[in-house]
Amino acid sequence: MALTELERGVLIFDATWRGGPGTSNRTAVIRHRFGLSPNQYLAVLNDSCEDPEALRIAPSVVIRRRAARGIAVQRTPKSA
Fold this sequence. Notes:
By secondary structure, the protein is an all-alpha fold. It has a domain at 5-15 and 25-68. It is built from five helices and no strands. It has helices at residues 5-16, 26-34, 38-48, 52-57, 59-68. Helix 1 (5-16) packs across helix 3. The longest helix is centred in the first third of the chain and has 12 residues, at 5-16. The mean pLDDT is 86.
């Protein structure tokens, strides 16, 4: 299964978002950029993390989300 443009965008956004002061606007940014509620955003993010392509795009996000759900990450060997 190939990731959609939305799924890739959500993965990249989550990988590059920096928390800290002012993070309360994250919900507003998600709504503006993707047109999603926070619950919809998390559903897209979690579903995206099931695709092997996601591990190549945003490995830290995939590992973090899968760990939060108690799912082990199996890395595929890199091609020579």
